[in-house]
Design brief:
7 helices, Rossmann fold, alpha/beta, 37% helix, 184 residues
């Protein structure tokens, strides 16, 4: 679809709060990917009715703010899950909630692949199926939303509380918060 993609391997991530975790190479790489991206795809296996611990570990290493920069705010997000058994939506619902918490723009479409062990060939490629087509649909929607959001990203993440905390003067003629409470 013309996008440059990166995949993060979480196998070396330390636990959040471990000594030196902010300086760990895997944590730095994860955060660099987050700052680089315009959109993300979060996919988790469903474990015990929830996202996996490894998925949550990655999210826990992405702070809301890092040196005045927000690694996730204003980026688009697609959520997906795989299940070993019957189809469920527990993991995608949690990922959607976490994306909102991380101030991301989560697209409406999502994917949940049931009995995932049956959906891949020996080479690890997903077999043609309705599940495969749904994933393509989700990726197309992520690209569309990312393109739609791109020219507005700065405005979408401009926050009154942050401007106020930074001491930026409020222009009552153009500031949305001032316009909203102005006498009509």
């Amino acid at each position: 679809m013309g996008c440059e993609t990166r995949i993060f391997d979480p196998s070396d991530l330390p636990l959040p709060g471990a000594p030196g975790d902010d300086d760990h190479p895997a944590v730095r790489e994860l955060r660099e990917h987050a700052f680089w991206s315009e959109g993300m795809v979060w996919c988790s296996p469903e474990r015990h009715g929830q996202v996996s611990g490894v998925m949550k570990l990655q999210i826990d290493h992405l702070p809301l703010s890092l040196g005045g920069m927000r690694p996730t705010q204003g980026r688009t997000l697609a959520v997906m899950q795989v299940s070993g058994g019957s189809q469920s939506f527990n993991a995608v619902n949690t990922l959607r909630l976490l994306g909102r918490w991380m101030r991301m723009i989560t697209i409406p479409n999502q994917s949940s692949v049931a009995k995932a062990f049956q959906e891949f060939d020996e080479a690890g490629r997903m077999k043609p199926s309705a599940y495969y087509e749904r994933i393509v649909d989700v990726m197309e929607e992520l690209v569309r939303f990312t393109i739609l959001v791109r020219p507005h990203a700065v405005q979408l993440v401009d926050r009154y509380s942050e401007r106020k905390a930074a001491g930026i003067p409020v222009d009552a003629a153009s500031d949305l918060s001032s316009i909203a409470i102005a006498a009509q």
